[in-house]
Amino acid sequence: MTNKGVLQMDRVLINDTTLRDGEQAAGVAFNVEEKIAIATLLDAMGVYELEVGIPAMGETEAQAIAAITKLNLSAKLLGWNRAVKSDIAASIACGLQRVHISVPVSAIQIDAKFHGQWRVMLDRLRDCINFALDRGLYVSVGGEDASRADEIFLLEVALYAQEWGASRFRFCDTVGILEPFSTYEKVRSLVMSLTIPVEMHTHNDLGLATANALAGIKAGAKSVNTTVNGLGERAGNAALEEVVMALKRIYGMRTGIDSKRLLELSRLVANASGCDVPPWKAIVGANTFAHEAGIHAHGVMKNPVTYEPFAPEEVGWERRLVVGKHSGRHLVSHMLQQQGVTLDLEETQFVLDAVRQQAVESKRSLTMQELLSLLPQRCSHVG
Description:
This protein has 15 helices and ten strands. It has helices at 18-22, 32-45, 59-69, 85-93, 107-114, 118-134, 151-164, 180-193, 209-218, 240-250, 262-273, 294-302, 329-337, 345-362, 368-373; strands at 13-16, 49-53, 76-82, 98-104, 138-144, 168-173, 198-202, 223-226, 290-291, 320-321. α7 links the parallel β5 and β6 (168-173). α8 (180-193) packs parallel to α9. It starts with 12 loop residues before the first strand and ends in a 10-residue tail after the last helix.
């Protein structure tokens, strides 16, 4: 047991699966150009590894993956496969040198896919690992539904994968049913028993994908699957931007990723997927560095760290002060002064009352033009 140092490493490897699991979100379908653009930006930002798709899915998918392999990116490129030799052959045909082989490890999934015949599943896994290794491929093995698997059986599968030559084992919380404390215990047990690294793959069905990914990393997992904006099946996956910033700000860990381009990346994937980012979304949402409430806005104007965990520029954002129902006189006065308008206390209160009324009626914050339109008649816009 060589992986005894839980959380010893100071760098976590990001294996982003936006182009595979992210695209499996209902209604999402990237074209070849979009896949190339996403892969290129992820690579430029320093993402270590990209799970680029499922080669066996069909000709269109295979063509997109082959196009990405021809870009000569610095990132490692990985194809997702079932424990089927033809799947792996399809990955090879695309030019991939790394394959991920997924097998079910819970009784529920083994019953559904192998009619409960777990020995058949293991035989298939061994044969596919050998098939891939004979062709010089890097092999990652994933335990589908590991979070609901019998822990002894899960460990046996992981140990077999290691013995047969796999270079990594992926722990999958496939239906997102774990919480961080049990995640830590389950992953730590694997880490302490394996000599190959463990990778985290978490889903957000209970809103805990990022927390569970971090728990697995704290337990000793050395790499983690992410998707941009948390895009993915059902409620999505651990969000790249959240994992990167949490590792950086909470644990002081390096990912090698240029966080200043996270907003740019988020917008690229949002446009390609047709899935808008909610304004309250952590790190990349439009409200992340927007301040309206009086006490908060006043505090940020004096010292940004009062109500911001890090500078907006760190992720590509800019700070925004907006006026609305919860604004106070200090914010209204500050924003008007920036436009060359100075009001006395009574006039400022008059404008603030009008702001609050209009914000309630319109159900949003006000634009600068709307704010200026509320000025007393004696005032004019000087700026």
